[in-house]
Amino acid sequence: MSPTDWRASLAPGLTALKIALPAESGTRLIEFVELLTHWNQAYNLTAVRDPAEMVVKHLLDSLAVLPYVTRGPVEDVGAGAGLPGIPLAIALPDTRFILLDSNGKKTRFMTQATASLKLRNVEVVQARAEDYRPVEPFATVLSRAFASLGEFLKLAGHGCATGGRLLAMKGAYPKDELQGLPPGFGVLGVHPLKVPGLDAERCLVEIEKL
Fold first, then answer.
1. What is the pTM (predicted TM-score) of this model?
2. What value does the mean pLDDT of the chain take?
3. What do you get for the CA distance between the two ends of the chain, in Å?
């Protein structure tokens, strides 16, 4: 797939997800993939190498949870290469995002990416989830391929406000992980996600901090 083709593949994917973004936001999403492709050559930030695959597996996969990110500020725990935080921050410019990761090379990339993309609603923090103490609790705490549900709540649950939402992006329905969650949290639902162009199961576990 040529650069023109993979760039053009973003628009129908957004349409399938029923997401309407300004042209400037679409441009920033593509610029993010280009930055990730460039940095990936030296820093091995993601196993996905093909920009066309990045559009599907990183951009569209991240944006599939957009309808559930309804309140800020938002903490992206174990953000890695900025996923899903950076695509969501591009789509929600009025929502504040904290991108948290303990890996120095990944936080350096996220810092450079947010500066290059002029994302004024994003702050990058290098810290372990269990050690990070925010100034104010988050209305939404989310993760993508971070840990089991129990570990996610144990390590990052303290950062969520009472009545707030913790959103865990998963592959197949995590039946075993849903058993025996720590007290103080209640599962609101497990939402199936359909990512355009991706032939794999995806779901989002929505949890309330009681």
1. 0.94
2. 92
3. 48
